[in-house]
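Dock coenzyme A; give full complex structure.
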Amino acid sequence: VNSGGGWPLARAGEVVLGPGAIHLWSANLDSLLGGAGAARACLAPGELERAAAFRFERDAGRFVVGRALLRRLLGGYLGVHPAEPVLATGEHGKPLLDPPGSIHFNLSHSGGVALMAFSREAEVGVDVERIQDFPDLEAMMRRYFAPAERDAIAAMTSREERREAFFRCWTRKEAVLKALGWGLAVPLDSFEVTVAREDSSRVTAMRAGAAPPEGWRLASPEPAPGFAAAVAWIGPQLAASSWAWEGEL
Ligand SMILES: CC(C)(COP(=O)(O)OP(=O)(O)OC[C@H]1O[C@@H](n2cnc3c(N)ncnc32)[C@H](O)[C@@H]1OP(=O)(O)O)[C@@H](O)C(=O)NCCC(=O)NCCS
């Protein structure tokens, strides 16, 4: 079972996270829901409380299997049981290892697809979004995007191109904010990214208080058809490798 993106299949513990690397994992959370009951065993009490607070069973199940998967992958990299890593929450909600460990990570999910990133070198942020139609893309762009981003998207000829570019831009911006741990506590139009498909993706302007644009690295992986995704980090160029989670949890 994979997320359909054509990434090679693997499981936790099969790959080593060395220096200079960034690892991306995708998974189809819905295909893992059957294992949700057993997956609870490796969750912390606070995570089980969060699961219990979801209104819909499917959302609770996706949260449980997503957390269990995150814990399996962290456990695999750290050489410990998945229940062992202690996860704390940053000021704006970013999950972090406690005490701050040797691995930086971040995760995102949309429409049952999860994307997770791991690195030993740099604080990372990821975002995945299912590409969908908005009745008023222009209003969304006016509300959230910087002028240069809006202009670049508006100049595209077909509606489909504009829609895809919107999601490329959106995921790149969210990945940047998630690398910083700021989440949407900071306005999305307070910095700028490129919107073109070509993988020259980069930050072109940054608000005060974060690394300058040239310090940022940005990539747009493709975890599954019909989804846009981005990963962002500050610092050295890292070699990105991608896997889709194989089989059950
Ligand atoms: C982080 C945020 C951008 C996520 O957006 P989203 O597209 O809805 O969701 P995604 O699936 O991409 O990401 C969710 C995951 O990001 C992680 N996350 C949460 N807050 C984060 C933050 N500040 N930085 C980085 N990652 C964060 C969590 O792992 C979360 O998954 P989980 O809930 O299963 O643990 C959004 O929830 C946010 O801005 N939160 C902060 C809100 C805030 O700061 N409020 C302050 C008062 S206004």
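Observed: The first strand starts at residue 9 and ends at 10.
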